Amino acid sequence: MADDVVPKTFRALVESAEKKYARVRDLPAYGRWGTSNHYFHKVFKAYMRLWKYQQENRVRLLECGLQRWEIGEIASRIGQLYFSQYMRTSEARFLLESCIFYEAILNRKYFEGSGKDRMVRFKELRFYARFLMVSLILNRTEMVNLLVEQFKAIVDDSKAAFPGTNFKEWRLVVQEIVRFARVHSPSPDARPLRYCALFDSHPSSRPYVARFHAKKVLKFRDALLTSYHKNEAKFAELTLDTYRMLQCLEWEPSGSFYQRSPVEPRVNGAVIDQSITSGLIDINLAAEMMDPALPPNPKKAVLYRPNVPLLISVVATMCEELPPESVVLIYISASGNTIQSTTLHTESSSSSRKSSKNSVLSRTSYEQKSALHENYTNTNGDTGQYFENCLCLGPSRSGGSNNLYPGDLIPFTRRPLFLIIDSDNSDAFKVLHGAERGEKSALFLSPLRPSFRNPGTDVTQTGSQFTLFLADPLQAFCQLVGLVSSDKDLDCSDEADGIISTAFAEWEVILCTLTNLDLVWAQVLSDPFLRRLILRFIFCRAVLGLFCLHERGDEYLPVCLPKLPDTFSPDSETVQPSIKRLARLLKVGDCFRF
After folding, report:
1. CA geometry: angle at 352 spanning 347 and 357, to 5°?
2. Across the strands, what pairs with 392?
3. How far apart (Å, rounded) are the C-alpha atoms in residues 2 and 9?
4. Which of 48, 223, 265, 505 is a Cys-bridge partner for 202, taking CB atoms 3.0 to 4.6 Å apart?
C-alpha cells in the first residue's frame, strides 16, 4: 500500500491542477486585472506544486508507468499559463518563461511517438500551435520557420496515422501560419519592431526630450488593439495588423535571450542527459534574461473580432481603472460602412428598412449606455453625424452589433484618449474632434485609399499600409515604391535606417522646442512609444504627400487632429530633404514630386 502513495498523490495533484486550470482557461485576457491575477496565482501554484512533486518522485513515478508525454503536458500547461498571463499584463518576463517551457518540450521530445495515440497527437498539435504563437510574438524567426516545418510534417503524418480522424481544422491552422510567416518575413538585418533604446533613442535629441515638460504630462498606461478585414492575414486570434501594433508598443528585451546557449543542468558535476524523461526545467531562467532598467510595457487588450458591446465594455473598464494623468490608446483597423441618413426616415425597400433598423438599434443602445440626458447636438443642430458612418468589426451578416460609430466613443472622451483609426472610412471619426466630453483626444486617421507603385498590391495579403508606416517606416516606404528586401543590400539598408533615424532626431528636437505645439501632443511627448508614433506619422504623411504616382487628393493622406504645426507639412524644409535623401539612396526619386 505504501508503494501506491506516490502515484496516487501525483494523480490527485494532476486532477486538482486541471480543475483549477479549467476555471482560468476561458477567462478573457482583459478587463478586471486583479480578478484575473487572483485566479492565475491559484492555478499556477497548483501546477508548481505538481511540477515539484514529479521532480522529487520521478524515479518512483517512472517505475509506476509515468509517460514522457505526461511531463510534456504539464510543462505545456505551465507554458500556456505564462502566456495567458503575458496577454493579461504585457509583462515580458511571462512571455520569456512561456518560451523556456515550450522550448524544453521541443528539445526533449516529450511528445515523440504520439502517432500511436490519437489523444496524445492532439496534445502535440496544440503544443506546436502555442509555441508558434509565442515565437511569433518574440520575433524568433528561425524558431518560427523550424516549428512551421515540423508542424506541417506532423499534420501530414496525422492523416496517415489516424485515417478515421478529420484533421481539416489543423490543416487550416497550418495554412494560416504559413501565410502569416510569408507576409511577415523580416530580413535578417531588419530592426526590431519593438522600441529599442539602441535604435529609437537618439543621442542628439535625448537632452531635449529629457528637459521637455508640458503644462500637463500624461503617462501611457493601457491600449486596446483590434482589427477586422475580410480574408486578412492572421494566426489563431492574432491578426497581422494587431501583431504589428502589439510589437511596436513594447520594449525590446536586452538581447541575451536570443544569444543564450542551451542550459545543461548538472548533478554532482555530471551533465544530465536531456533525451530521457527529465523534469528539470529552470523556472526562474527568465529573470536572468530581463533588463531591469527597462520600464514595464503598457498593458494591451488584444481583441479578436469583438462585437461592439464587448469592445465598449473593455474600453469602459480601462477608462474606469485608468490612474490619474494617464492616457489610453485605442487602435482599430477595419473596413468602413456608410449608413445613408435617408434610411433613418424612409423605408422604401427591404434593404433600406434593414439598414435603418441597424442604425436606430445602434443609436438606441448607445443612448442607453451613455446617459439619456446628454445632448449630442453640434452647433449646427445636427445629431446624425455621429451615427451615419461606422466601422465594421465583423461580418456584415451579424448586423448592427458589429458596427462601431464615432458616437460610441464619445462617453470615453472624459479621459485622455489617443485614437488610431485605420480604415477606408476613417474620416467619419473627424467628428470626434471638438465633441469630447472632458479631455481633448489625439486622433490619427489613416488615408481612405492606400498608395502603391504597383497597383496590383493586395492589402489583405500585406496588411494595412498605414499601420505598417507606424510599425516599420522603412518597410512601408519600400512597399510603397515596389522594393523588396532583395533589391537593397545590407549597407544600403543601414544607410536608409540612418537617414530615417537622423530625421527623427531632428524632428524630436523641433517638437520639444516649438511654442505652438498643441497641448494634446505636448502632454504625451515624454512617452517614448507615443513620441515615436508621432514621428512616424509625420514621416508617413510626408512620404504619401510627396508620392506622385497617384492623382492628388486628400483621400491619399493621413490626418491628425488636432493639427501638428505647419513646420511638419510634407512640403516644409524641415521634412522634405530627408525624404529626398532616402528616395535618392534607394533610386526611386522618380516616384516623388520634390
Report:
1. 85
2. 335, 403
3. 11
4. 505
Element (H, E) at 271: strand 270-271
Task: Return the pLDDT at 441.
Answer: 97
User: What's the CA gap between 432 and 562, in Å, rounded?
Assistant: 11
> Strand, coil or helix: what is 372?
coil
Q: What is the largest CA-CA distance in the chain?
A: 87
Is residue 575 over pLDDT 70? yes
In this structure, is the dihedral angle defined by the CA atoms of residues 139, 145, 150 and 152, taken in order, positive or negative?
positive
| Omega cis (within 30) before 528 | no
For residue 301, give the 3-state DSSP assignment.
strand
- Nearest Cα to Cα of residue 327 among 426, 240, 232, 439: 439
Does pTM top 0.85 for this prediction? yes
DSSP reduced 3-state for 472: coil
Q: Which cell numbers hold the place of 97?
A: 518563461
- Cell 523556472 found at: 283
Distance in Å from the first CA to the final CA of the chain: 87
Distance from C-alpha of 193 to C-alpha of 139, rounded to nearest angstrom: 9
Query: Which residues lie below 8 Å from residue 343, measured CB to CB, with a gap of 6+?
Result: 352, 355, 356, 359
- pLDDT, tens digit, for every residue of 501-518? 999 999 999 999 999 999
pLDDT band at 279 (very low <50, low <70, confident <90, very high): very low
Q: What's the distance, CA 61 to chain centroid? A: 42
Rounded to 5°, angle at Cα 463 from 474 and 529: 55
Distance CA(158)–CA(167), nearest Å, equals 8
Separation of alpha carbons 455 and 314, rounded Å: 38
Give a three-class secondary structure readout of 166-225.
CCHHHHHHHHHHHHHHHHCCCCCCCCCCCECHHHHCCCCCHHHHHHCCCCCCCEEEEEEE
Neighbours of 271 (CB within 10 A): 9
Give the pLDDT of residue 113.
Answer: 84
Helix (H) or strand (E) holding 349: none
- Residue 90's contacts (CB-CB under 8 Å, 6 or more residues apart) are 250, 296, 297, 298, 299, 300
**CA 543 to each of CA 216, 306, 417, 438: distance values in angstroms, whole numbers, following the listed order:** 31, 33, 26, 34
What is the SS3 assignment for 253?
A: coil
Q: Which amino acid is at 348?
A: S
Residue type, 136: L
CA-closest candidate to residue 90, choices 304, 285, 323, 296: 296
Burial class (CB in 10 A: 0-12, 13-18, 19+), 351: exposed
- Report the phi/psi class of residue 261: left, alpha or beta, with left for phi > 0 and alpha for psi in -120 to 50: beta
In the numeric block, which cell numbers belong to residue 322? 485608468
